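**User:** You know discrete backbone vocabularies at least as well as I do. Would you mind producing a protein record, from residues through to fold? Write it directly below this note and I will take it from there.

**Assistant:**
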Amino acid sequence: MLPSLLVASLALAGCGAQRVSQAQPVASVIDRIAHTLMQRERVQGLAVAVIEDGAVTHVAAYGIRNAARDPLTTQTIMYGASLTKTAFTYMVMQLVDEGRLDLDAKVADLLPRPLPAYDDYHDLATDERWKALTMRILLTHTTGFANFRWLEEDRKLRFHYDPGTRYGYSGEGFYIAQLILEEALHLDVGQEMQRRVFDRFGMTRTSMQWRPDFQANLADGFQADGTPEPHDERSNVSAAGSMDTDIDDQARLWAGIVRGDGLSAESRTEMMRAQALITSRYQFPTLVPDTNPANAAINLSAGLGLVTFAGDRGKVWFKGGHNESTGNMVVCVERGKRCLVMLSNDVRAERIYQELTEAVLGNTGMPWSWEYH
């Protein structure tokens, strides 16, 4: 529930401009709410963007970007983390539109060599279930893999269940998706992302690899206990999460995605379509067998590179990005093409995202307990 100060602020926001069906509060109120919540949870840095009817209506940054207490601005480079997965999927769907890729083609038919013949996949040599993998399975997190092989006791990749049978968030699946583009289509994923996504949306301060010019205005991170964490200069392109970016660029990206720019109507719909029902009680840990029957009531499901559900305001889809010092979240409501984009270099920001989202978008029915446990 919002503190009384925030409730009062929202009431004031309703005065003045004519608005329809839970439209956003005015910018000054959003800023006031963000500051109040950040102070309560000691969040060091936060950047937000609001999208209404597919257009960016508000972009702001608050707090600091590093331990030296330099200010966080709308052009501060922040770690995109797993928001990369949705941007990568958007590029994949362009290839689908061009007839260069079939979401349901078997990996065994796409790759020029068997998957276990590649250096990173020798672990699968004795388990032929890899042959059942498809791009759709990879992009819906239904591979059967752990999130990352280094989380396994022996640090080896293995199937925990049959591909396509259960949702279990896995960056490993996106590594294979990237391998398909590189080996089967002979594409440079970093260059394709730049040309097809970042250049398309005018994202001049976003890259799949570290750029030296990022250093001048760069966000370090803050862990849950407030410990600073230096920004990792990622030199390798990773579809699972190597994107560096700023909030200005992310505003352009998600406005373009919610509009469907650069995709056919069919492919844009396919991304947000419920592909695989999610039955797990929580998103993480990924392999815990606990289930939650309530998920079915909102049709909580994997889309392609994102999660979708039937909320209080119709179809809603979302994507998070997280590590020990990063907390990102995007929530989009299909009705009205409305989104809230939140980037933070402080993982404690995840504690305020429910209240901030409800303040801006209203009660969407977002399954926060599943997302953040």
Summary: The radius of gyration is 20 Å. The chain has one domain: 4-101+185-372. Confidence is low (pLDDT under 50) at residues 7-21. The chain is about 30% helix and 15% strand.
